[in-house]
């Protein structure tokens, strides 16, 4: 994951967590504030209901007793009942009709919801509710016989709505007449509940205590001033849900805004941090694939310190590479000098012997001098020619130029080498010549029949198998030289022991921007005692040759930043593998200078 992606992820997670934490905390605090507001409203409604009911009770307490004591309306009704000897049915019908009209008027004047004129036996003489006239109510009979006083609660189950009930009685000459008035509690509760936005309702006797739920908050209120009165107070949670919904939308909108701002900051910060690192990485890759030079750190002290450390490392590596190269050159020269001395020493022995023999024959004036002179001079010339070949090959090895790098198609180069070895041998019929299948850089296989340098009747075969690979930064001529050497060595080794010598060249990609070249033959392979010295100069098991071919091939591969190795095939034969970097060799032959030039090495497409 890139630095920019990590910063975006980190800032996004922090923004989400912070918004969620603040939002949840704010939401819970808002819920608690609103819930406490519900409780405060209930407490205020409780106090208001208590105050209003106390005022209602005080007003009712003194409302009816004066009427029973000296009101004309009640006195007339008592006289009529007394004339009927306490029997309501024996009263004068006209008096009863007059009472039915007067009671509602009195109730309205006194602002009573109910007013009932009742006899001692509970017979209702007149009432606001005309349907009750003429009926008998035992509860009212008991009530009028009881002494008057503070208003009482009349539960809803006793008939109608819960009300505050008050009464008075007039008793004289054995006849009792009562007046019962009531004022409903519901309108009082509704008026106060509306003022405080609280639902208030009188609870029935025996009704269980209310429980709050998701829809509303409920509480049972008690009033000591009016025994038996219980009021259910409830507040809807809908405002709470609406407020929380608005708060959730605000939190979500704020979270999106914060996340957007955080991501924007992360993008700007990531670019400001990653751009110098990307530029530094690009410069270091150019250094590794091009001419060594100093890199410049931009973007902060840390980047500058990193660039300085890299430059110091490059300086040290270049110095070490230079010292190592000098050491290796000295060691190589010593080894080559030793091997050249050994190689030259061998032809010097017959030359010395021939010269000494000629001198002895000359000193004795031996008649065989003329005959031996031709043989001796021929031997000396052959050995001098041999020494000249050794010096020529060594000069070619020592003067191997550095690679001239350019993007090349290794598959096309390998196809050219295969085609070169497909040329028919001298004197061979055309029908027995090459039959080659072309291959492109995109892959494929091809084969050739016939190659120079093999004995008559032997049918060597050279094959090419290639997978798609990019162009490689390399020296075309040196790559041809390496492949030609390996293919020819394979044909020579296989042709010495088999009638069907075969060499296969395989090319394919490798991880980390590398390519692999494999040259495989079906010969006997390299002798075990030769393997440790296989790539040394003048190491050879051939009767002819100088032994510099593999040494030159190894040097070319090394100078291209690659590797070459040998292994024996499982079914016999030699296998040479070459690994080459696509971008070419890292050039650290000299320490980087202070120049600001930025040359680019050749790049593989």
Automatic annotation (TrEMBL):
GO cellular component, one term: plasma membrane
Molecular function per GO: ATP binding; phosphorelay sensor kinase activity
EC number: 2.7.13.3
Coiled coil regions, renumbered to chain: none
Protein's membrane topology: Multi-pass membrane protein
Membrane-traversing stretches: 6-26, 251-270
Disulfide bond is among the record's keywords: no
Keywords carried by this UniProt record: ATP-binding, Cell membrane, Kinase, Membrane, Nucleotide-binding, Phosphoprotein, Transferase, Transmembrane, Transmembrane helix
Residue span of region Disordered: 426-461
Subcellular location: Cell membrane
One Pfam family from the record: HATPase_c
Catalytic activity: ATP + protein L-histidine = ADP + protein N-phospho-L-histidine
UniProt-listed PANTHER family: SENSOR PROTEIN CREC, SENSOR PROTEIN RSTB
Descriptive protein name: histidine kinase
């Amino acid at each position: 994951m890139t630095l920019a992606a990590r910063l975006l992820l980190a800032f996004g997670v922090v923004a989400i967590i912070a918004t969620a934490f603040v939002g949840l905390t704010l939401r819970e605090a808002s819920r608690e504030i609103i819930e406490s507001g519900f409780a405060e409203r209930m407490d205020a409604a409780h106090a208001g209901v208590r105050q209003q009911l106390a005022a209602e009770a005080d007003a009712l307490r003194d409302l009816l007793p004066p009427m029973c004591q000296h009101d004309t309306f009640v006195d007339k009704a008592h006289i009529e009942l007394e004339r009927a000897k306490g029997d309501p049915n024996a009263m004068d019908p006209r008096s009863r009709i007059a009472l039915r009209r007067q009671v509602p008027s009195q109730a309205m004047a006194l602002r009573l919801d109910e007013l009932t004129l009742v006899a001692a036996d509970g017979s209702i003489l007149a009432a606001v509710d005309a349907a009750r006239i003429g009926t008998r109510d035992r509860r009212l009979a008991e009530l009028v016989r009881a002494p008057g006083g503070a208003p009482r609660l009349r539960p809803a189950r006793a008939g109608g709505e819960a009300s505050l009930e008050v009464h008075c009685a007039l008793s004289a000459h054995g006849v009792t007449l009562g007046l019962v008035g009531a004022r409903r509690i519901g309108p009082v509760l509704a008026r106060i509940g509306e003022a405080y936005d609280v639902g208030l309702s009188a609870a029935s006797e025996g009704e269980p205590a209310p429980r709050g739920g998701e829809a509303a908050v409920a509480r049972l209120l008690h009033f000591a001033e009016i025994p038996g009165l219980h009021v259910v107070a409830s507040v809807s949670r809908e405002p709470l849900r609406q407020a929380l919904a608005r708060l959730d939308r605000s939190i979500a909108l704020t979270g999106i805004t914060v996340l957007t701002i955080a991501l924007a900051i992360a993008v700007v910060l990531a670019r400001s941090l990653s751009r110098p690192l990307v530029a530094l990485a690009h410069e270091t890759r150019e250094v590794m694939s091009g001419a060594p030079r100093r890199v410049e750190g931009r973007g902060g002290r840390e980047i500058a310190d990193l660039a300085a450390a890299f430059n110091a490392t490059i300086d040290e590596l270049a110095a070490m590479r230079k010292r190592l190269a000098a050491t290796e050159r000295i060691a190589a020269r010593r080894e080559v000098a030793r091997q050249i001395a050994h190689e030259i020493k061998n032809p010097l022995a017959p030359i010395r012997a021939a010269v000494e023999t000629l001198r002895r024959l000359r000193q004795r004036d031996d008649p065989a001098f003329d005959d031996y002179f031709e043989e001796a001079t021929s031997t000396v010339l052959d050995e001098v020619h041999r020494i000249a070949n050794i010096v020529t090959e060594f000069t070619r090895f020592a003067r191997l130029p550095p690679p001239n790098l350019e993007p090349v198609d290794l598959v096309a180069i390998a196809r050219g080498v295969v085609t070169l070895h497909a040329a028919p041998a001298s004197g061979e019929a055309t029908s027995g010549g090459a039959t080659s299948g072309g291959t492109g850089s995109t892959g494929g296989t091809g084969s050739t029949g016939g190659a120079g340098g093999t004995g008559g009747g032997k049918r060597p075969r050279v094959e090419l198998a290639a997978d798609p690979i990019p162009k490689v930064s390399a020296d075309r001529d040196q790559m041809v030289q390496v492949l030609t050497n390996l293919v020819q060595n394979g044909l020579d080794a296989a042709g010495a022991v088999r009638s069907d010598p075969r060499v296969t060249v395989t090319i394919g990609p490798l991880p980390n921007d590398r390519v692999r070249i494999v040259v495989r033959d079906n010969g006997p392979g390299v002798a075990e005692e030769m393997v440790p010295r296989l790539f040394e100069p003048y190491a050879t098991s051939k009767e002819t040759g100088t032994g510099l071919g593999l040494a030159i091939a190894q040097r070319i591969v090394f100078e291209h930043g690659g590797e070459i190795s040998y292994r024996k095939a499982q079914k016999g034969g030699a296998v040479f593998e070459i690994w080459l970097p696509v971008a070419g060799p890292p050039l650290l032959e000299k320490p980087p200078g202070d120049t600001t030039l930025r040359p680019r090495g050749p790049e593989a497409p």
